[in-house]
Amino acid sequence: MSNSEQEFQRIMSNPPNEIISDSLKGRLKDNTQKSSHLSITIGDDAHDCTLEGFSFTESLLKVSSITLSLREDLIGRILDRGEFSLSSTMSKQLNISFEQIYKIQCFRYDKDIYILELSLEKESND
Q: 105 φ, ψ to 5°?
């Protein structure tokens, strides 16, 4: 059990008269309970993923990078297949095909969670 899962269980087992903020409950919520507006499709399989951040080009007209958190098994599938796409119910700008990706950076965030940063265009002055 990860540290965050242990902390979640500890906090949720407190007596009902203990006060905990809604934002803390949301941050400690089990990942399977979080709603996702973003999914990654690898082959024919779609998987929920968490949008951690994004940035816009200098003109503020389009997204230039997207940062996601993914489970370790999904990173392995991406490496094996070498292709994926993103779908979003939040914004059409987050619907990304593999061909739109210029650069991918990936690093381990937690025991079995990775952060994937997708650069969508070559860095330039727009």
A: -125, 140
CB 58 within 8 A of CB 126: yes
Distance of CA 53 to the CA centre of its chain: 8
Distance, in Å, from the CA atom of 34 to the CA atom of 65, rounded to the nearest integer, reads 23
Joined together, the tokens standing for residue 8 give: 């979640």
Name the CA dihedral angle for 13, 110, 64, 94, rounded to a multiple of 10 degrees: -50
Distance CA 49, CA 65 (A): 16
Q: Are 72 and 115 in contact (CB under 8 A)?
A: no
Write out the H or E segment, with its range, that includes residue 10.
Answer: helix 3-12
HSE-CB at 124 with a 13 A cutoff on CA atoms is 5
Q: What is the pLDDT along the chain (126 residues), one digit of tens a residue?
A: 777 777 777 777 765 555 555 555 555 555 554 456 899 999 889 998 899 998 988 777 888 999 999 999 999 888 888 889 999 988 888 899 999 999 999 999 888 899 999 999 765 554
